[in-house]
Every structure is written in structure tokens, then in C-alpha cells.
Design a protein that fits this description.
The structure is a homodimer.
Chain A (H helix, E strand, L loop, with lengths): L1 E7 L3 H13 L5 E5 L15 E3 L5 H19 L12 E5 L1 H16 L5 E4 H8 L9 H5 L7 E5 L2 E3 L2 H14 L3 E4 L3 E8 L15 E8 L2 E10 L5 H6 L7 E12 L3 H7 L12 E3 L6 E5 L4 E5 L18 H15 L10 E10 L6 E5 L2 E5 L5 H16 L4 E3 L5 E3 L18
Parallel strand pairs in A: 1-2, 1-11, 2-8, 4-13, 11-18
Antiparallel strand pairs in A: 3-7, 4-6, 5-6, 9-10, 10-11, 12-15, 12-16, 13-14, 14-15, 17-18, 19-20
Helix pairs in contact in A: 1-6, 1-10, 2-10
Chain lengths: ~425, ~425
């Protein structure tokens, strides 16, 4: 028994791919395998659940904007509540950084992307921000910079990732995708294209292909095997010598309670958005973010450290107390003294699956195995577009139609003819 | 005590880099570390020891040609015997492959690169070749193709890699490079750029750098740490989250004795080169090569299999009997029946360190660590140029001067502004 497609991984990329394959090829037999006991329980569940439709790179923008528009459509037109809140992103910037971003921002403004600039005084008043950290000797020693401007992007916010996962899972099932949870893929099944039935095949004089997967529940054969296994993908692909250009780093989120009056005030700050909630706040350097989570009465904090954070794939990455205590906390409290004394009541860690080529998703096929991955920390906000492009590649189409109608050349996210516009808004 | 440069790995890349750094910066204190007990004993020693100055890509050609000219200079002008033999490369081609290569070859000919074409009859007569394998049903089932042409490249041959290693080691020592064998690098030493002397440094608000290496013989501090550790490089770099785009595959060489009369005749075939030796012979598909090693009275055979050969770093890769028996042997004997019944009397395996971006070397610096690697199977023939480019990067120069005078922009082999001309002669 052979499937048309076996998809490995029921994170957002795998689910979206399964759904869109059935949209394009309703008759095809599609199997989705997941080693965990339900959908979206891997790194999808550990996401910050934020999105923004504000990028300079047309690649970034096309993927994020069309996905966000689709999620909006799901919520507003289809009536499936994804708990989207348009709270915006607010970057705190030094005057130096603002100056160097200005030409890029002007160009983005000409293209119709909206943003607002706030000055220091406004930020100090509304956020209780200590903008002039350089007045503090310790902060100076730490290399922290003064905040002179705030850049607010309104087409951005947060989403309930569990609900989004549920949406795709339901829709995929409705369209006939068979889903098996608790099935771990151990190896890719390698066979000659034209088997001769000899033991030891394939030999070097035969052309080989991926013919399915070997799992904890037996072998599943497929015309196309589609890997959407995020951080775990290189482990499967290294064993057959295919390079996917994905490596993983641990990302930690620390949650602190908004139990003081001044923290509640910060959470429900007025004037930045209609929700009267603190926008997703990003400090100047190091770029720590702070997210208000009113339903929990807490703030989440995170910093995506690069060098010397190791590349490592691990099943149960653990948050590190010192990372908060000597790192995040020390910086946050200099800018936002309201957080003085706050210690995390909860913390967790996941893995970002980075595409080490350019931080954009990779979607390609070799030897009948397709790779769909490399969300690089913006997987949630790009998942719908990624699923459509993967489905188009599967269906042998040159272009994918993104939500809203934009045609996207499939090979742009492939390896051989990869064409990703660099992101100039590095912020 | 701090060195200006600590170089990790005394393979050809590390030796050449050490030598050329001292040429550019004679006063700098340079330390070369090697975990094995002597130079060139890792994968350098397992090389096929072949070179060719025949590439379409100007990147490939500049690196290989200038290195080969330097080796020739070492042998002919400096009198250091590298046992270079200009035996040439001889590709056996089907008419289909020849036709598709013709435009590329014509262009190369216009650029002054020399080659000769032989027809089937000549090859049959001189080599005892069975050109029309399609007459054999088994060969047809194996997908083997008939040979219609031979492409001979005269500016190509073999070299004594041990002698080349010895040359660089001597010259590096003479110029004052300190060399320590039997010292294993365990980790990169990470420190803040501006240490505050706090336990747990560097913190996320500090800029970090590689400040040297931790080894089995203690810590060695360096202004620049230079990794030339081939296949082992990613193990060190993954631990600090730097991507070097290098992955490794096992490569096996099998040696069979030329003990039959017809094999001796093949080894000493006349008319292809002045040595009256079999040129380095490459079969059409799979592209197995056969090398005459007259000093051993044997032929070496190898096939660089791609998919599904795993990416793996291992200390003692082992040759696989079946790889010869059911793979290489089956193909070779169809084209060259002289080898009938030949079994290997010796075999060994090494690792090719592939650059998964484009198969060209990578030479870049980040956070005070330099990466020099990714020979991708042509490391020996490019080692001199690679050493010069690495030394130029170390010295902060924009261009390296290759042997013969060509200026080569250092950033062309880096990551950010990488500019490698694709190789159209895929053969």
C-alpha cells in the first residue's frame, strides 16, 4: 500500500502543507505522521505566537503578509476564533539606529507599509521608560544605549497558535488527510528507482530514491515523502547525505507575573492600539522582547542570542535560570524599572530551526523527498504561505498562489534557483 | 602569553596557511596545533593525490592552476622533489555526454585550455576497452552507457602528497612557526571583548569573541584563532553556533595488484603521455576512477558516491568490501575486462569535507575565529592558493596574490560576499 504523500511532522508547516496539498490534489492519498501525541506540540507550541506584516524583503513580506491575511480571513470570514489581537510591535531605538534605518523605512512607507514614530518623551511618559540609561554607570558598563525613538508597526500582533493548529488539523482531516499520532519516523526508506530484487540494493550503478519512511509503527511507502520535522530534519537527512541547510538553537521564554500596580499599568497602557495593551516591545540592544499576556496576567520575555549559543538538536531543551537572572533581567530593569525584583514564575525552551543560508524557509525536492522547513523564528507567521508553496512543489506547479492572489515562484525558496530578497530592515 | 595566530590542523590547508601567514607577517607569533603525531596524517594522507588545471569556473581554475604552478616551481626551481607526474586525466564519455559538453569545451579551448579528444576505436585498441557495453545484457540492466569518446587533459597528474606536506612543514618551521603535534583542540575559548572579570562572562549584553583554544595540553590564547580542521571543523563550530557550511562523506580507495600481463600493459599504455602511463581514468557513469600507481605495481579505484551516502564525521572511517565487490568492480570489469577476478589487496577510507554551498573552499572570519576548509575533494590541488587567501584575510588585505601574480579578492570565498563562478564542466 503506497500513499501519494507521506508528511512527517504535524507542526504548523506539516499541517499547512497537508491541508494545501488536499486543496490542490483532493484525490491524492495523504498521510501525516507525528511522533508526539497530538498536533503542534513540538516547537510550534513553544513559539512567541507573534506576527508582523512589516518587512523590507519582498520575500519576507509576501510570505508573512499573505499568511496573516489568511489567518484574518479564517477568524473574520470563516468564524474560527484564532484570538488575533492587533497589538502592534514597538521597537525602542537609539538615535543612531533610527538614523541608519530611516532610508529603509522611507522606502517601506512609499510601498504603503504603515508605521508610527514616537519620541523619547512620549515613551517615557506612557511606558514609564527610563530612556536615558547612560546616566547609570552600570548600564554604561553593560554597553546599553539610550532610547530616543519608538517605531510602532500596527499591522502586527499575536495569535493563538493552538487554535491555528486546530484549524489546520480539522480542515486537513475534513479533506481526507489521514493522521497518525505517536508514530516516530526512524529512517527514510531508500530503494532503487528500478529495483532488480537483489539483496543490498541500491548499488552505485543504480539510481536511488526515497520510497517512504521506516517508523515505530512500521514502513509507510510514498510517491513523495515530505519532511516538515523542523529542528529534527537534519538528523534524518544527514543519514542519506542530503543537505537541508537547517540548524537549531535553543530559545527560552521567561514569564513574570504582572502582580504590581505599575506592571498592570504597563500592561494596559493606552494609546498604542485599540486593545489598550502594551505592544510587543523590543529593546535596543541586546534585542530582548517583552510581550504582555493579559489572559495570564503576565509578561513573557525572551532574547534570541546568537554567538556563542550552540547549534544543537535536543528533545527537551531546558531554560537556564542564569540566562534570565544575569542576562535578560539586568537589561530589562534598566529600561523598565517597574520590573525590579521580578523573577520568573514559569519558563520554557524550544528550538528555532534556522535556515543558515538566509533565514528564510527552504522548500525543495531531491530524490523524491521534499523538505519544508527553516522557519527561523518566523514560522508561525509564514506557515500558510509555506504550506501553499510546498503543495505547489508537490503538485509540480511552477507558481504557488498565495492567499490574496499573489503568485509566488516555487523555486525561489528552493536550493538550486533560490532567490530570496535580503532583509534590509534588520531590527 | 598570547599568540598572534593559533592554527588548528596540520593538514595541507593548515600548513599552507601557516607558511603564507609567515610570508606576509614574518614577525607574528604563529602556533600550529595538530592532534595527530605528525603533519598531513588526517584526510590529507587519504587523498587520491591527483590534480588538474582544467575547470570552466574561473574560481576553480584560479585556485587549482596557481597552486599547481607553485608545486611545479617547488619541484623545478627550488629542487624539492614532489614526484609530480604529468600523466593527464582521461574521461571516457558517451556520445550524449560529449555532445552536451562540447559548447563548454569549445569555450575553454578559446580561453587557451588544452585537451585532446580520442575516438572509440583508439580507446578500444590502446586500453583494451570494451566500449560497447550495451551489447552485454547485464551491463544494460546496470544502466551502463557505451563509450564513444575520450577527453584527455594534459595539464593534470599526480603528486606525492607526503612530500608536499614535508615541504610546507619545513618552510613553515624555517620561518618560525611553532608546531605542536599530539595536541587535541577540545573547545574554542570564548571571552567578552571587554572583560569585567565577572564569573559567568560573557553575558548577553557583552560582545563575545573567540580568544583561543582549550586543548589536551592546556589553553592557548590567540588574537586570531584559525581553524583548518577539515571534517572536524563543524564539531568545534557548532558548539559556539557558527555555521561553516561543511559536511563530510566517507571516500574509499581500493588498491588492486597489476599482477597480470594485460594489467601491466594497461598501466604502461603508450601514447597518452610522456611517462607512458595510464592517465587518471574516469568511467562514464557511475564516475568511478582508476589510477595507475606504478611504484606500488597497483591500480587504485574509487567512486565518490553522493545520495544516499551519509554525512558523518568519524575518526576511523572504514572501507566497505561490498562497495568494491558489488559496486566498483562490477562496473570496471564491464569496461575493462582485464580486471576480471581482481580483488583489492588493500583499501582505506577518508572523509571529504564538502562545502555544501558550492563545493568551493570557505575562508571567512567571525568573532576572531577564521575558518579555512571545504576542500570538497580538491583540497590538495588548491592548497597553496587557499593558504595565500587565508593569510591575506588574516593580514586584513582585500586581495591575495596567488602564485604567478593573479590577484584574488579574499571575500570571494567568504560567506557574506561570496562570489564563486559555477562549474559548467560537470564531468
Amino acid at each position: 500500500m503506497e500513499y501519494d504523500a507521506v508528511i512527517v511532522g504535524a507542526g504548523l508547516f506539516g499541517l499547512s502543507t497537508a491541508y494545501h496539498i488536499k486543496e490542490l490534489r483532493p484525490e491524492d492519498k495523504v498521510l501525516l505522521l507525528e511522533r508526539l501525541s497530538g498536533p503542534g506540540q513540538g516547537n510550534t507550541a513553544k513559539s512567541a505566537a507573534m506576527f508582523r506584516s512589516f518587512f523590507y524583503s519582498r520575500t519576507n513580506l509576501a510570505l508573512a503578509d499573505s499568511s496573516i491575511e489568511f489567518y484574518k480571513h479564517v477568524q473574520e470570514d470563516l468564524g474560527f476564533d484564532l484570538r488575533i489581537k492587533w497589538i502592534g510591535y514597538l521597537w525602542l531605538l537609539s538615535s543612531g539606529e533610527y538614523r541608519s534605518l530611516k532610508p529603509v523605512l522611507s522606502e517601506m512607507s512609499r510601498r504603503g507599509l504603515e508605521y508610527r514614530i514616537y519620541d523619547r518623551e512620549y515613551l517615557e511618559k506612557t511606558l514609564g521608560l527610563r530612556a536615558e540609561v547612560s546616566a547609570d554607570e552600570e548600564a554604561r558598563l553593560m554597553g546599553l544605549v539610550d532610547v530616543d525613538y519608538g517605531l510602532l508597526v500596527p499591522k502586527a500582533g499575536c495569535i493563538d497558535v493552538d487554535a491555528l493548529v486546530k484549524f489546520y488539523e480539522n480542515e486537513a482531516r475534513k479533506r481526507g488527510v489521514e493522521i497518525k499520532y505517536g508514530v516516530e519516523v526512524l529512517d527514510l526508506l531508500i530503494e532503487p528507482k528500478e529495483p532488480l530484487g537483489l539483496p543490498g540494493e541500491p548499488f552505485i550503478w543504480q539510481e536511488a530514491r526515497v520510497a517512504g519512511v521506516k517508523t515505530s509503527a512500521g514502513v509507510f511507502r510514498a510517491k513523495k515523502t515530505i519532511l516538515a520535522a523542523g529542528a529534527w530534519m537534519p538528523l534524518l537527512l544527514d543519514k542519506v547525505g542530503i543537505e537541508c541547510h537547517i540548524k537549531s538553537k535553543k530559545r527560552q521564554i521567561f514569564s513574570v507575573k504582572a502582580d504590581k500596580e505599575e506592571l498592570k499599568k504597563l500592561m494596559h497602557v493606552e494609546g498604542f492600539n485599540r486593545e489598550n495593551l502594551l505592544p510587543f516591545l523590543i529593546l535596543p540592544r541586546p534585542k530582548i522582547w517583552v510581550k504582555a499576556v493579559p489572559e495570564e496576567g503576565s509578561f513573557w520575555m525572551c532574547y534570541s542570542d546568537d554567538f556563542p549559543r550552540e547549534f544543537k538538536v535536543e528533545d527537551e531543551p531546558q531554560p537556564e535560570g542564569e540566562f534570565y537572572e544575569y542576562g535578560i533581567y539586568q537589561v530589562v530593569v534598566k529600561y523598565l524599572p517597574q520590573f525590579k525584583g521580578c523573577r520568573p514564575h514559569a519558563a520554557w525552551a524550544g528550538l528555532y530551526a534556522y535556515c543558515t543560508l538566509d533565514g528564510q524557509p527552504v522548500i525543495f525536492e531531491e530524490h523524491d523527498v521534499m523538505v519544508v522547513g527553516g522557519g527561523s523564528g518566523s514560522g508561525v507567521m509564514k506557515a500558510d504561505a509555506v504550506g501553499r508553496i510546498a503543495a505547489a512543489l508537490y503538485a509540480g506547479e511552477e507558481y504557488a498562489k498565495l492567499y490574496g492572489g499573489e503568485k509566488f515562484k516555487v523555486s525561489r525558496l528552493g536550493l538550486r534557483e533560490r532567490k530570496v530578497e535580503p532583509e534590509k530592515l534588520v531590527i
